[in-house]
Amino acid sequence: MNIENTMIGTVKVIHPVAPSLDASNVASFRAQIVPLLADSQRLVIDLDKIEFIDSAGIGALISCLRIAAEGKAQLVLCGLNRPVKALFELMRMHRVFEIHQDRESAAGAA
Amino acid sequence: MKALILAAGKGTRVMPLTRNCPKPMLRILDTPVLELLINRLREHGVTQIMINTSHHAAAIQDYFGDGRRFGVELAYSFEGQLIEGELVGNPVGSAAAIRCINEHAGFFDDTFLVLCGDAVVGIDFSQLVEHHHRARAIATIALQEVAPADVVHYGVVVTDDDGLVTSFQEKPSQEEALGTQVNTGIYVFEPSVLNYIPDTVPYDLGSQVFPDLVARGLPVLGACIPMIWLDIGRLSDYHRVCMMALRGEVPGYTLPGRETLPGMRFGINVHIYPKRCEISGPVVISGGAYIADGTTLVGPCFIGAGARIEQGARVEASVVMPHARIGANAHVNEVVTDGRYCMLADGTVLDLAKADIPWVVGDARMPRASLFAAEQRYLDSIG
User: Fold this and answer.
1) Which of A91, A95, A96 best probes binding to B when mutated, by most B CB atoms within 10 angstroms?
2) Could you tell me which of B317, B315, B366, B314 has the C-alpha nearest to residue B340?
3) pLDDT 10s digit of each residue in chain B, 383 long?
4) Closest chain B residue to A84 measured between Cα atoms?
5) DSSP SS3 for A26
6) I need a surface site. Which of A91, B167, B297, B302 has the fewest CB within 10 A?
């Protein structure tokens, strides 16, 4: 999985560039994301390219959230497409994650 | 009077609802759209009805049989073939369907009705036929006024001052539309229309026969009489019509079950302790359903036969089809689910099996043990 990594001010923006986050690529996603979680106070995962997510993908995001919290970092999400947002709502993940419209508002709302 | 109900469509635009059933068999809560239509026709004295079938033809014929249980006489015209033990549909088009039925044994020997089998309608058919005769039309199209923004989904019909059709526009843009009266798929014909249906397959009424009749200068009436027309063209329409049915706004539709508490109708043997749940009507819970303590149901809601709503779940403005299961603490709002797919009111479709979340929304008949571990992990994760 190709993951772009940029900064908006002091906020790190992680951008998985893939059509899905599911059992097929979740290992690659985790392997690349976990090292990035260490050295930032606030991180944004921009999911705007992700059209489909499954329980494995959601599980990976939850584990990222835990790792970030252990390092006293804030992890927030943005750019959720309609089907992804719908699944989050069904699973009540929108209560677990802080979710923003886009990366600018996600980075700014510290 | 005689009628033909067109039921051979594939229902592509309402997939996945139509993956196992033809569109006319989509149930408004518990009743197929086609049954509502047949009831309406019977009320207006139309009791000899042909149905043309193609995709999932058996589902229609098995349900309605010869029509006796529904107070009408039914027969079917199957468009397709039995190939290697499988019925393979091959629709001939709405106009060719009329020709095939008539060639079989001259069924259409007087003024007759043709209706699309995939809309819920409340219309005075007798009045429609009266208008047709008064205009001495060869064909009449029942028209419905829609909002200018909605013309893009329909066939616009333009009429002159006498109501005679002058032109058609199929799904025009809002800017190009020459009017806001649209074709409802409810027609009246004189048998002489058969002279204008050539021996070509496929041949369609809307795009071929009607424009041809108008081009020949034959009188085609566009009748705009008061009617309720609930077209189920898209997934969002299906959710909307089900909500209307629950609110008592669908003509000729009687809610199932018995009103046990205000706004709450139950079938038999429903497992529920209403005092241990939060319920606001209108809610219909079908026979054999299981509603755990601590659930919240916010109407309009329909819970199908044998469905399960687990502890702490919340179901709002939704249709939970028979045998679907809403897992513990899951929240569904403005959805239609059959346990395999979750269809949102805006038309978004979630493939639940692909998303691999059977413990959130799934099938009530799945072994509980297989869900338990994943469900516990999930409940822990959301605290």
Assistant:
1) A91
2) B366
3) 999 999 998 888 889 999 889 999 999 999 999 999 999 999 999 999 999 999 999 999 999 999 999 999 999 999 999 999 999 999 999 999 999 999 999 999 999 999 999 999 999 999 999 999 999 999 999 999 999 999 999 999 999 999 999 999 999 999 999 999 999 999 999 999 999 999 999 999 999 999 999 999 999 999 999 999 998 988 999 999 999 999 999 988 999 999 999 999 999 999 999 999 999 989 999 999 999 999 999 999 999 999 999 999 999 999 999 999 999 889 999 999 999 999 999 999 999 999 988 889 999 998 877 777 777 777 676 65
4) B350
5) helix
6) B167
Question: What does the pLDDT read at residue A77?
Answer: 95
**pLDDT, tens digit, for every residue of A57-70?**
998 999 899 888 88
> B382 in contact with A at a CB cutoff of 8 Å?
yes
SS3 B259: strand
Rg of chain B on CA atoms, in Å: 23
Q: What angle do CA B278, B280, B281 make, to 5 degrees?
A: 145
Chain B CB contacts of A56 under 8 Å are: 356
Quick one: A2-105 is in which CATH superfamily? STAS domain (3.30.750.24)
Q: What is the reported pTM?
A: 0.91
**Other CB atoms within 10 A of residue B244 CB:** 18
Domains and CATH numbers, chain B: 2-235 (3.90.550.10), 255-381 (2.160.10)
Looking at residue A64, its amino acid is: C
Pick A96's closest partner by Cβ from B332, B356, B382. B382
The single-letter code of the amino acid at B316 is: E
Q: Alpha-carbon distance B159 to B221, whole Å?
A: 8
Angle value at C-alpha B41, between B36 and B47, nearest 5 degrees: 120
Locus of tokens 């996600």: A106
**β-pair partners for B77:** B52
d(CA B383, CA B380): 5
Q: Packing angle between helix B368-381 and helix A55-70, nearest 10 degrees?
A: 30
A interface with B, Cβ–Cβ below 8 Å = 23, 52-56, 59, 62, 82-83, 86-87, 89-93, 95-96
B356 interaction partners in chain A (CB closer than 8 Å):
23, 54-56
- How many residues in total does chain B contain? 383
Dihedral sign of CA atoms B235, B239, B242, B247 in order: negative
Distance CA B301, CA B320 (A): 8
Tell me the C-alpha distance between B330 and B90, whole Å: 42
